[in-house]
Write a structure and sequence with these properties.
Length: about 80
């Protein structure tokens, strides 16, 4: 399942002008997993704060209220807002 995405390298130069409209997020419980590192690097390279959602891969299912609350405020945390 992960194999197709492991070789993907986002075009950071193309994304940079749009950074004020981008939220980069990851699951709190995934911090020690390989899938979390790319979102950390992307947020860093775009100069953005990484939003951390509850849980890991299925945080929305285990913590739906907390997840939904963060999802509601995510647009307000964008740099251009």
């Amino acid at each position: 399942m992960l194999r197709p995405s492991t070789g993907f390298v986002p075009d950071v130069a193309a994304l940079a002008p749009l950074a004020d409209r981008i939220s980069v997020a990851g699951g709190r419980d995934s911090r020690t997993r390989a899938v979390h590192r790319p979102v950390e690097v992307l947020a860093e390279r775009l100069g953005l704060r990484l939003l951390e959602f509850p849980g890991g891969h299925v945080g929305y299912a285990k913590w739906p209220e907390e997840f939904a609350g963060l999802l509601r405020v995510a647009p307000a945390s964008l740099p251009g807002r």
